[in-house]
Amino acid sequence: MSYKLEEARNSVQQRIVKALREYRNLYAVQHRLGGRMIYPESLKLLPLYGLALCKSIPLRGGYADAQLDERCAAGYTMMSLPVKNLLKLLYPSLVRVDEYLLKASSQADELDTSRLPVTAQSLDSRGLYIYDDGLHFVIWFGKMLPPDVAMNLLGGDFATDLSKVNLCEHDSELSRKLMKILKKFREIDPSYYQLCHLVRQGEQPREGFFLLQNLVEDQVGGMNGYVDWILQIHRQVQQNA
């Protein structure tokens, strides 16, 4: 926190470049590189987590993008987390659940919890998604999600302002299945209890605050998306390699 924000982000990027350049210099002949970027298996996610760190609350944007107290609180939280929890906070899980909820109980297999890329391209306006950073759940309702699904999950509050709705179990199979999913996610690490934030597609600024600005792989607030970030790192690794 003693550096300017831009300097801190550049420092993160340069450390990644240095690590990948050192590996390239050591194994360039063995791999017959050409213009490719190489890295060991243990470092394959390093650029992604570096980008996520630069977009985290302590380092993102300019001074107007987050209050100083908010940056400090987020920074101390990150420093106190175990590594596994920190990595999840930096790159949360994004899981689609509406297709599972709509299956009849007799046909339903286990929920596919494979993580989707944390980008707006993963969001289907006909779907229902859970975004989980280990500290919070954000449940995203697509604007084309069938109204009866929302009604089953939220009861009579399905058409109201979601900031005023508390998610609770209703007398429907869909609601019970959703609550079981959230319970299962919470049991993965019982040291934290993720509170739920409900978000409807297109409702700003709520959607932007809870979800869109946290989509790590997208270009947000003037910061690079993942593709531009990895290309920039690739060019710098090749320089003077």
Automatic annotation (TrEMBL):
**Gene3D superfamilies, A to Z:** Sec23/Sec24 helical domain (1.20.120.730)
Q: Which GO terms describe its biological process?
A: COPII-coated vesicle cargo loading; intracellular protein transport
According to its record, what are the GO cellular component terms? COPII vesicle coat; endoplasmic reticulum exit site
Give the domain of life: Eukaryota
Q: Which InterPro entries match?
A: Gelsolin-like_dom (IPR007123), Gelsolin-like_dom_sf (IPR036180), Sec23/24_helical_dom (IPR006900), Sec23/24_helical_dom_sf (IPR036175), SEC23_SEC24_subfamily (IPR050550)
**Single GO MF annotation:** zinc ion binding
Domain Sec23/Sec24 helical residue range list:
3-87
**Span of domain Gelsolin-like:** 116-163
- Please give the name of this protein: Uncharacterized protein
| Organism per entry | Rhododendron williamsianum
